[in-house]
Amino acid sequence: MIRFGLPKGNVHKKSLSLAAQLCGGSIDSKKLSFIGPDVEIFLLKHRDIPALVQEHILDAGITSTEWIAEREVNVPVVCTLDWCNTRMSVIQAGNAAVPYKRCITEFPNIAQMYFQTIGAHVQIDVISGSSEAFVPALYDCCVDCVETGGTLMRNNLVEKAIIMESQMVLIARNQTEELLPFCTRVQQALANI
Question: What is the Cα–Cα distance from 23 to 27, expressed in whole angstroms?
Answer without folding.
Answer: 8
